[in-house]
Amino acid sequence: MNRSWWHSNTPPSLPVAILDQVMHLLLFVLLCVVVGHGSNASNVSPPQRLAARQLAAWSVGQTVNTTSGPVSGHGAAKLTDVSEYLGIPYAQPPVGSLRFQPPVRYEGTSPINGTDFGPSCLASSITGNATVDPSVYANITVTSIAVDLMFDINEWADNQSEDCLTLNIWTKPQTGGEGKAVMVWIHGGAYVSGGSAVEWYNGQYLAGTEDVIIVSINYRLSIFGFPGNPLSRPNLGLLDQRLAVEWVRDNIALFGGDPTRITLFGQSAGGGSVDLYSYAWADADPIARAFIPMSGTATGFGLPTNLTANANWFNATAAAGCGGVKDDHARVYECMMGKTGEEIARNIPANTVADSGAGLPFGPVVDEVLVFSNYTGRKAVEAPMLIGNTHNETGLFRMMAPMIPESVLAAVNDNAFTCPAALRAAESVLQGNPTWRYRYFGVFPNMVLSVQPESGAWHTSEVPVLFNTTPSDLLPDTPEEAEIGSYLRRAWATFAKDPYNGLTELGWPKYTTTKKSLVRLGYDNQTGPNLAVGNKYDSACQSIPVIVVSATTTVYSVSTAVVPPLADGTTPVVTSNPTSGGLETETTTAGATPSESPSALAINLGNRPLPRSNMALGILVLGLVIFL
Fold this sequence. Notes:
628 residues; 11-stranded mixed sheet
């Protein structure tokens, strides 16, 4: 494999026909996680390495000797006092005999030119060439900005390769003896698309204005990262993420970072990855000490079983001409190993998605090692958490699938985003972890997708505001947008610097459901925390099995009930017979009507009824693939 780019010196039923169109169109936009140490560098303690760097003056873009080799950086394009190191390999190319196998640490001595991003990992070619009848857009007014936004977010697709396991670093030159807090970004894209090269994820402003180190990573996607092959280990993409975090632990002190202060943050599938990581490494060294899952949780998008994953694998192998489930599995695997990565990605059939049954077509699968079948009450890493979502996640999906009824979109907003975040926040509190929950409301002219109906604070819309990468070439940021973006950066970095007390010092109360502790960000486009009762938007969450808190019992059990009331000053425990608390009656986001049982509500996809609790297939297929 040519690696010269490293070392260069320069509820209603939908008709089947409409569903097929939805599958093709929406997969184009859908939602939009261990290896040893090695190397002499990792044998030196972080304080020694940082102290050694103080002996010489720090400069922008200076060469850093890493376990992957000496890496040369440069000044970032817009903040030239920020060092930018791009395309650093952390794993050997997952090609040849390493395809469909766990990642192997990369170690090298050759100089690495950190001028350009590495390729994005190969994404699924499952959008097909479907067209949609323009008449379905008769009742929706899409802005011209929306078209440009779609192009912006798809720039990762211009450069894809199987040889893609790289990471990027932004940092200001180190001053003083204390290492910087480190924030590792995991991108989204429904586990089948996306990449760290998306301009919206450029870390120069977060690093430059908040004096933290930002790291963004690539990980294998689609069938390459989550193959479902019965002869291979599952969840390879999650193992890639872990290996990248290990690389950060072993090398970040050389860039001025503190390896004991690593925070993982990510959005959509990246948020799901962060949450999955917090459970997967609960009984090992988690490396990360704080977590920020944004618009994504371990359970929000559905978790397929090995049976489902195997079916997806054999759908793809048959389409690639390698045989199916009835053929010899070893020969099928051998045939797939002989195909080019592009051939495999290009031939994944669209019906893989339609027939996946639960969850996303290629993504984390239950293996009881990294991904578990039951998360209720499961031990997670003992670490602080900041968790939340946008107010109108499905504002994106409405534009991509205007034929989907509003009641279905409202159910997705609740069941894929609001309710899983409510449950995860409650679980974190129950385990005694400092926990904060937010809901993002910002709506700005250069981020509006549709005006009729209004797209609102849609899925992913907070990301460019956080990173200060909004498309200001289309329309300039409003003063309110700039102020809210600055506030988001300060809040996220404050949490990373001191995840136990930092947000409290900013005036954020720790999360409970019965007091004003839900932090509304960008509410009425105002800067600062606007507080609401913790469970204000959770009234549709009654169908989700949750833990119920009582101050009068110490018995732990699971109850199908409301999200637990977590009162200030109460030692949280669980009871199967809740005795106090409840949800606010006021609801500002649509959900099931009183006459409509949430647990019974289903969406008829062809002949496959899909319960609301498992909307990841039926609705995430609505549009979660680009976004992040």
